[in-house]
Amino acid sequence: MVQEQSALAQTPAPPRKKIVLSGVQPTGVLHIGNYVGALSLWAQQQDEFHNYFMIADMHALTVPENVKAKALRANSRSVAALYIASGIDPEKNVIFRQSSVTAHAYLAWILTCCTPMGWLERMTQFKVKAEQVESIGTGLFTYPALQAADILLYNADYVPVGEDQRQHVELTRDIASRFNHLFGKCFRLPEGLYRTTGARVMGFDDPTAKMSKSLAETQSGHAVNLLDPPNVVKKTIMSAVTDTNNEARFEHASPGVRNLLELYEVLTKQERPQIEAQFHGQGYGSLKAAVVEAVNETLRPIQETYKQITEEPGYLDGLLARGAERAGEVAERTLKRARELTGL
Ligand code: ADP
Ligand code: TRP
What's the pLDDT score for residue 15? Predict the structure, then answer.
């Protein structure tokens, strides 16, 4: 007995499971870019990490002119259903709505006070979005401080996101360092996780613009949404902008063709030489038809699970309530320490 105990004492503790936090704004139907750049990456790595997947509904308020309460609530539930339909196990991972955990708003204020204006003025997403809206709300400007709060409350090691969020993750590190320096060690500095291929899916109608929910709403043919039926997927992808050559090699292709090749690569997990051998010199019709098939194969199970989940009364509400409780416990602990350190 005594011997067993000492053997136990010598066994090194298992390494801590690293923590992941990420989220998507519920501002419209998610598109294949969100799936490839974020959701599929989360699902793929879920067993390796302890995960918090958030529905960033407070971020959706940054352009209040576009918000209708009923639609925001419905979109939030729809995004939660799409997380699960994309393969994220709701039993093993914490799925929650940002606005259900009030610590996000509280810590966001503390972090806003620690963020120099100049840092926020450099944010590319702010500059782009500010051009798209009639009146620029202060929240649109301070949005990265709220995002920093989202990440730091859970002591996340990793933040798996698309390439467009790289600047926000790096800013989060800067804000965390500044707080730690001013008030004492409180936050772990997180790192972004990005796909090597697929971190920036471009619009099918304009391969120089990142596929985005807002452009998808105003430009038909821009994006494939995760709930699009197969004939709509076909129409969108068959009309994708390409060029007049026959160049289907990754390094030489024009942006529109490269976008299709990369999408095909990520969805089918095939090697580049194999893909090039299949499509180079063929005319783009066969590449497009193959991408249509790969996208529809990916979307079919997602749409089936989505339908089941959304038809089950009370399921999502129960899940989100449990998620909020689990996330809230962790977030409150971090907030308590930040309050102690700042004297609040
Ligand atoms: P959108 O810009 O379409 O409104 P979000 O800003 O809510 O989408 O992004 C949610 C997640 O999806 C983030 O991790 C973001 O980096 C990722 N993402 C968004 N658009 C793309 C894209 N075109 N390609 C790859 N990832 C993307
Ligand atoms: N800002 C992110 C986007 O527009 C969404 C988001 C909010 C997020 N909070 C986050 C992503 C925290 C990662 C971590 O896509």
Answer: 86
